[in-house]
Amino acid sequence: MDLKQLEYIIQIAEENNITKAAEKLFITQSALNQQLLRLEKELGTQLFVRSRSNWHLTRAGAIYVESAKNILRIKKDTYNQINDLLELKEGKLTIGLNPGRGIDMFASVYPIFYKKYPKVKIEPLELPVKEQQYEISQGNLDIGFVTLQDFQKTEDVYIPLCSEAIILGVPASHHLAHLGGQLGGPLPEISLKHFEHDSFAVMQQGSTLREIYDRLLEDEGIAPPILLETRSCQTLFDMVSEQICCSVIPISYARPRPNVSYFSLLQQPVWEIAVSYKKGSYLSQAAKEMIEICTEFWLQKMSNLNGNQPSSPIP
After folding, report:
1. How does 173-189 read in b/e, with b if 16+ C-beta sit within 10 Å?
2. Same CATH topology for 3-69 and 165-271+306-313?
3. Which CATH class is domain 165-271+306-313?
4. What are 226's strand-pairing partners?
5. What is the per-residue DSSP string for the chain?
6. Residue 3 and which of 111, 132, 216, 242 are 20 to 30 A apart at CA?
7. What pLDDT score was predicted for residue 312?
8. Predicted pLDDT at 100
9. How far apart are CA 133 and CA 148, in angstroms?
10. 108 φ/ψ angles, rounded to the nearest 5 degrees
């Protein structure tokens, strides 16, 4: 069986277009089409339903692609195990990172990793949590660094690195701002009910933080107006800092500002910073080393925020 042929068919299936697949594979469309036709003749059936704008798998094609992915995963796991056995310290590691701070983390930890594994090629990909989970399930990511709660986890493996508090940020111009606190000390505890008529900046639908926020609102039985939906946690903080609206944000995005007041929420929401990988796959020594270095990074980062424990609740 030609492993390169497996990669070709998987790429066509992922792109739903043979022209785009050929571009990604750096081969001509004609050459890729010949590979496909040869395979379909060998199998005695078509793998794709063709159209000008969209190709999609036939039932036989779906079976072939699923098996092809399993074969390539077995190959990768086998090579990784042998590399570890021989202590070669080489290969490739594809890593999923949260947009924004994921790259900041990578920039900090990669020099440490490189000193130990200079021959391991790293491919970092910035992807939202849900996209990382999908790519992990498909075997396209070796490991992914994600932030989520237990109800958002898939059937794959999750290794917790640390937990992070989710807090409320309020502009200093808000009439309750004087009851709030600042980072580095206990934060007053408050119910979101006090802010049910205030505008909020929130993450876009589908993000893990938005799902957590929506659950908090459901628990309180409120629906504050949404002023802005964004894909950036940094933007949430900026909107509060600019005195535009309130927001529920991860504490690591909060900054000590005299024009922002902070509260702990009654539910004490936290999410987990974790690393995930495909259930049943082999975790290489290089991947384990990367996880260990990243764990140290997050523990050190969060240790500076440990003073923000809730104080007495505000009635």
Report:
1. ebebbeebbebeeebbb
2. no
3. alpha beta
4. 200
5. --HHHHHHHHHHHHHT-HHHHHHHHTS-HHHHHHHHHHHHHHHTS-SEE--SS--EE-HHHHHHHHHHHHHHHHHHHHHHHHHHHTT--EEEEEEEE-TTHHHHHHHHHHHHHHHH-TEEEEEEEE--HHHHHHHHHTT--SEEEEEE-GGG--SSEEEEEEEEEEEEEEETTSTTGGG-B-TTSPEEEE-GGGGTTS-EEEEPTTSHHHHHHHHHHHHHT--PPEEEEES-HHHHHHHHHTTS-EEEEEGGG----TTEEEEEETT--EEEEEEEE-TT----HHHHHHHHHHHHHHHHHHHTTTT--EEEEP-
6. 132
7. 47
8. 82
9. 11
10. -80, -35
Residue 139 Cα distances to 5, 34, 303, angstroms: 17, 27, 34
Q: Tokens for 65?
A: 């692609």
**Bridge partners, 275 (sequence order):** 145, 159
How far is 120 from 134, CA to CA, in rounded Å? 24
Residues of the chain with pLDDT under 50: 310-312
The domain ranges of the chain are 3-69, 95-162+272-303, 165-271+306-313
CATH superfamily, region 95-162+272-303: Periplasmic binding protein-like II (3.40.190.10)
Work out the angle at residue 113's Cα, subtended by the Cα atoms of residues 105 and 302, and round it to the nearest 5 degrees: 35
Which structure tokens are listed for 83?
A: 């590399």
**Domain 3-69: assigned CATH number:** 1.10.10.10
Start-to-end Cα distance in the chain: 69
Strand 90-97 to 143-148 pairing: parallel
- The residue whose two tokens read 């939906």 is 229
CA distance 36 to 30: 10
Rounded distance, CA 287 to CA 291, Å? 6
Q: Which amino acid is at 249?
A: I
**What pLDDT shows up at residue 315?**
53
Which tokens hold the place of 196?
Answer: 């049910």
Provide the pLDDT for residue 184.
86
The length of the chain, given as a count of residues: 315
